[in-house]
Design a protein that fits this description.
688 residues; alpha+beta; eight-stranded antiparallel sheet; 18% helix; 25% strand; BetaGal1-like_ABD1; Beta-galactosidase; BetaGal_gal-bd
Length: 688
Amino acid sequence: MAMTSRGSWPSSMGRHQLDFVLLLVLLAVGISVPVFALLPSLPRGEKIITSSRKFYIKDDIFWKDGIAFQIIGGDLHYFRVLPEYWEDRLLRAKVLGLNTIQVYVPWNLHEPKPGMMVFEGIGDLVSFLKLCQKLDFLVMLRAGPYICGEWDLGGFPAWLLAVKPRLQLRTSDPAYLKLVERWWDVLLPKVFPLLYSNGGPVIMVQIENEYGSYGNDKAYLRNLVSMARGHLGDDIIVYTTDGGRRETLEKGTVPADDVYSAVDFTTGDDPWPIFELQKKFNAPGRSPPLSSEFYTGWLTHWGEKIAKTDAEFTAASLEKILSRNGSAVLYMVHGGTNFGFYNGANTGSKEFDYKPDLTSYDYDAPIKESGDIDNPKFQALQRVIKKYNAVTHSITPSKKLKAYGLIKMKMTTSLFDLVSMTDPADVITSANPISMESAEQMFGFLLYESSYITKKSGNILRIPKVHDRAQVFVSCLSQDVDVRVLSYIGTTERWNNQPISLPTTECNSNTSLFILVENMGRVNYGPYIFDEKGILSSVYLDGQILHGWKMIPMPFHNLNQMPNLSFEMHHTKKRSEKFNLTNDVSQKEPALFAGEFFIDSAEEIKDTYLSFNGWGKGVAFVNKFNIGRYWPSVGPQCNLYVPAPLLKPGKNTLVIFELESPHLELLLEAVDRQDFTCGSNDSKVDQL
């Protein structure tokens, strides 16, 4: 998905041992167009004799085993839905009337470390594709290697950013292509048996994603086509998706290699002039009109009002395509959730104009984040779709949610406790700060430590380039580690980078400086995609470079990572005990908080939402699973979705890493509703 290809809104729409620590707390769309007016109605009963299963293009029509086929599909991402809910969400898409599922493959989920391939759990792509086939869906597979999708780094593994010499992503750079080839040498052999011609559901495979909005390296695209054909053969339809403008289609298509070019465009745009343009970038007779991303909603960044689109407007726009035998794929049919640290981000015209995505990827899709289909958009789209594809499945009831009530939290581990528990072997020393990627930590937090001599008039700290958010603390170096006090000084951010005044301290020796940097999600679209994290410049104290740094990893666990130690809910240090005795919630030191709630029986286990109203900013884990980031003070998302499969009868454990200000009464609440009303409706992260 791409921002420029979609255009503006129609007027009616408006991510060695600190693992131990986490484990300790976690385990944690008509105007008539003559060319298309001649497009025949789909002869659904008319067959062409074929000798085998075959999906192909002829006479500007898709054909499935000799029968004309209209794709009425939807994007649904296995990596944004728990595996236990894959079938449920697919069935709801079936009830909507869809016949095809389109899905991205995020490289970073499957190869989190170089050479380490993961295809289990939420990464079990093969099982998801087989489930699609079981439910009689065809599949359009978007193999990347770049996917965009509001996903961290557009699906690229973050370790690519640490390769030296620096890789030129999304180009014909040989070093980059070699790594893509290594990845596809694993991925595509898994896909080959699942091609439609081999008895599987996969009818088309997309290379790259909206490349015409980024570059113009035809050699790169031809290399990808060659790799795909080498593994999948010449019969599979290889396709591209680009914005429905001449400029993007000229740059992003590969007509000489007989690659089918699909288009996307803003919902509400007249589709048929765009489909006529599409024909100019496909071989004669090989341009069935297809909107491969028909937007049912839109993404939302932190600090924005939640994106909403009108149900009837969306349905009417879809009918403009389907009523003249065009094909469309709903983006999204079901958005799901950016669990873990995998949310993406966008930028404005400048790199510092940074806009991270919400944890929720609800997208205002017809199937809501929790699976709800009892909503106007689902009903409006279903009324249109059933005219063109008979709905044979009955409506399944929307899933019930349960409010489990208040949860009392207790502080268990302070930031200093985390520091003291870090294995010295995991601490990196350097004259200057290094990036997270250089420290081989791809997600979470990195703590930078140095020291300086305090001036009586105070000091001025400046960090010219930090990605993405840095909280600054000082402490007396001479104090005993158990009683040292971290004093919060201020926060500087990528989108609001300001100098910080360090006050005079009465330390007997040098003053320790701690800078906790949060990776809030890598840019997934546009020119600034090479988005390293951490402190990316020298640090200046009173105009002079400050040397002598330690980098202390605080990665926590990401999606599909399994902790290997048991969580023990106890206070690890005297500081934690003192906090709970005094209930000092005014302090700004980040800390881990833990709580429990009980479910009487398996029958009582339902989806729920955790309300973070009254809390500051952080990340949460339920029964060791990273359910994502919260930031209610900025909003608009107030609650985090907790799917029922994460819960169990009896005791359920909740751990949060609170960065700023705990709830005054240290209370969280499990509620039965989604909520996007937090923060200021007109605020922007880059204006905070």
